[in-house]
Amino acid sequence: MTESRVPERHAKLLEYAQSLTPPSGWKIEVSGDEIIMMAGPSVIHQRNLLVVREQLDAHRPAELMPSENTDLASPNVGKLRNPDLTYIPIAVVESGGNDVPAELAAIAVEVVSPSNPENDLVGKVRDYPLMRIPLYLLIDPREGGLTLYSEPADGVYHQQWNGRFGDTVPIPEPFAFGLTTSALIRYPD
After folding, report:
1. Which of 50, 20, 52 has its CA nearest to residue 38?
2. Residue 145: predicted pLDDT
């Protein structure tokens, strides 16, 4: 297969995935040649996301808006991902459509799912820097861990901050604040 055909194949796969209608409570993502369908999140997942969202909302630049479960697309690298929370320019609403160019996202936030942790811990750590998403905040309620990835270049994140629930996460520009995590809840054992 030639390089010129790869983006075309990825674009067709993205188009097909976007034409699917998942069952209520499910969402669809594309990574390379895979279409991934996932069930909706638990209430612990949702609560943890709320704790983070409220703080990000308080520090978000006026030109960004929060969006949960928005399709971020990167057709040239064959990726369609749907982060739990992202912040995108308000101006993208004017363009319409169901997906947003991934490189416009300021951050992707994921709360690890107990049923499919590899998707957040491996797949998205691989995909988000390729999609040029500058910040990836990973919250893992299974063990109470936190990771902030930043500085994507050459398809990988070059900086990684690790912590535990209760630590303050140093969220850089465009938010520039310390995210408190003492209110996050772990999944039951």
Report:
1. 20
2. 98
pLDDT tens profile 104-158: 999 999 999 887 898 899 999 999 999 999 999 999 999 999 999 999 999 999 9
* 20 falls within a domain: no
CATH of the domain at 142: 3.90.1570.10
Which residues span the domain enclosing 86?
41-180
- Residue 17 forms part of a structural domain: no
Tally of domains in the chain: 1
Please give the full DSSP string across 98-156, using - where no structure is assigned. Answer: SEEEGGG-SEEEEE--SS-HHIIIIIHHHHHHHTT-SEEEEEETTTTEEEEEEEEETTE
pTM assigned to the model: 0.79
Q: pLDDT for 84-106, tens place per residue?
A: 999 999 999 887 767 799 999 99
- For residue 1, the model assigns a pLDDT of 38
Q: How far apart are CA 165 and CA 70, in angstroms?
A: 26
- Rounded CA-CA distance 31/22 in Å is 17
